Amino acid sequence: MKVNGTHYRPIWQAKDGEAVEIIDQTKLPHAFETLRLTSMQDAAHAIKAMLVRGAPLIGATAAWGLWLAMREDASDGNLESAYTMLMATRPTAVNLRWALDAGRAKLAPLAPDARVEAAKTFAEQVCDEDAELNHAIGRHGLEIIRAIAAKKSGETVNILTHCNAGWLATVDWGTATSPIYQAHDEGIPVHVWVDETRPRNQGAFLTAWELNNHGVPHTVIVDNAGGHLMQHGKVDMVITGTDRVTANGDVANKIGTYLKALAASDNGVPFYVALPSPTIDWTLDDGMRIEIEERSGEEVTRIPGRLDDGTLASVTITPKGSPAGNPAFDVTPARLVTGLITERGVSAATPAGLLSLFPEHRAAGE
């Protein structure tokens, strides 16, 4: 996607071939800055500190982290050390494990002197594949938006989204935003209700920044406004992304997603989740078994922003001495999900629905 007319991905190999560069998402929307990652430790920090975030982008960053590790030391021991350190950065997004497992399986059988180039090729493939998957997700989601637009006789389709599942969370296009971008580019009138998504405000900071750059009409709302808007017929559909979908269709996504799904169900608003297949965890059949990351309470008690004089600052918003809890994700039960939008099509959020699109994951003998 483009920033001020220039095409960017949120992660790429530096032109000199010696490092990886990223968009520092902690500085958005007030400053657009890029950072250079020169070591596996840099990549691990970028993931853990949320300089990069979003399940697909976390996986891509981990893949580049393996390349950086192999550049330093391509031994068996360092491959295992890098795998372990990168795996420990964030527990909820399954794309991290997928990328590291696939990368290790590719590199481990090779001689050390062949691993650097192979790791680079693997990271490039992960990134290019993610961009292709997300574009395909958009094509399938576009059909849903087209159908709603047809029923509304060309009136604006109002879409609510939560957190950021845009191109900043992936390698390009985004998951939840890909259908929106493609509908907008086709000329379908769309408007997006952008949940602020406390406590890190990924909706207000990132989704709104993306949509603004692409010219998509949108309005930032507080997290608790979604149900009110649905009650008054101002939401035609909800689309979110996800950090992990279990084999039975349960969805782990940014905290607050479950409440949006409940409100959507109560008001008859279709609730869709957009995801590439590496986000499906075929080893779990119960979303309540997903480890939910508990992040620092400072994300709740402090908030960054721009002061009237242009200065960037972080301010405390809670009483001194008040503790804060910060579960980063929640789980939306499959029964509340209208459909899962994948690169292969839209399925019901059920084991049968998922397997209809991904039959290669059927257990032997079924």
What does this structure look like?
The protein is an alpha/beta fold. The chain has two domains: 2-129, Up-down Bundle (Four Helix Bundle (Hemerythrin (Met), subunit A)), CATH 1.20.120.420; 136-361, Rossmann fold (3-Layer(aba) Sandwich), CATH 3.40.50. Helices cover 39% and strands 19% of the residues. It has helices spanning 40-48, 55-72, 76-87, 94-107, 112-151, 177-186, 202-214, 226-231, 257-267, 298-301, 351-357; strands at 2-3, 6-7, 11-13, 20-23, 34-37, 157-161, 190-195, 218-221, 237-240, 244-246, 251-254, 271-274, 280-281, 302-306, 312-316, 329-332, 339-342, 345-347. It comes from Thalassobaculum litoreum DSM 18839. Belongs to the EIF-2B alpha/beta/delta subunits family. MtnA subfamily. InterPro entries: IF-2B-related, IF-M1Pi, IF_2B-like_C, Initiation_fac_2B_a/b/d, M1Pi_N, NagB/RpiA_transferase-like.
Mind summarizing the main beta sheet?
7 strands, mixed
Low-confidence stretches: none
The counted number of beta strands is: 18
User: Can you write the helix and strand succession as a string?
Assistant: EEEEEHHHHHEHEHEHEEEHEEHEEEEEH
- Please indicate the percent range of residues in DSSP E strands (runs of 2 or more): 15-25%
Distance between the termini: 42 Å
Which word captures the global form? Answer: globular
CATH level 3 topology of the largest domain: Rossmann fold
**Whole-number tally of structural domains:** 2
Count of individual helical segments? 11
What is the architecture of the largest domain at the second tier of CATH? 3-Layer(aba) Sandwich
If you average the pLDDT, what whole number results?
96
* CATH superfamily label of the largest domain: Translation initiation factor eif-2b, domain 2
Classify the secondary structure makeup into a structural class.
Answer: alpha/beta
Radius of gyration: 20 Å
- Name of the CATH class of the largest domain: Alpha Beta
Fraction of residues in helix: 25-40%
In spatial order, strands of the major sheet run 8-7-6-9-12-17-18
